[in-house]
Amino acid sequence: VVGKVNEVVAQGKEGRLFAVVHICGKQFKVTTEDIIIIEGYWPPINGDQIKLEKVLLVGGRDFTLVGRPILPQDLVSVNATVIEKDLSHTKTIFFKRRRKQYMRMNFYRSQMTMLRINDILIDGKINEHSSVTQYSRTWD
Question: Are strands 102-108 and 64-66 parallel, antiparallel or unpaired?
C-alpha cells in the first residue's frame, strides 16, 4: 500500500489534495484556493506567506495520510497567504438585573484574519524518516 501511494505521488497523479490543519486552537479542513477566517489576534500582516506546520491529515482521491498527532514537517507542506486583517461585525452584550432598573449594553468587534490556501504538496516519500528530530513544533 505504501509503495502504491509513493508511486502515485511520484507520478503527480494524486489529484486535488485536502488537508486538516491546526491554527490558533482550531482545526480547518482545507484544499487549494480555500479562504479561512481566523478569529482573534494573530500577528502576521497582509501579504505574508505562511507555511502551516501543524498538518493533522492529508488526503486525495485514493489515499489518506493520518498523523499521530501531526504529520512530519518534511513530508507535507501547506502554504498560505494572509489576504486581509479586519474586524468582525458588531456584537452586542446586554446585561439586565430584573426588577432593579439595571440595564447595560456594550458593543465590541473582534479581530479577524483571512488566509488563502495557496497549495498543498506532499514533498517526500512515505515511511522515510528524516535524520533531524523535530522538537519545538507542537506549541502555539
Answer: unpaired
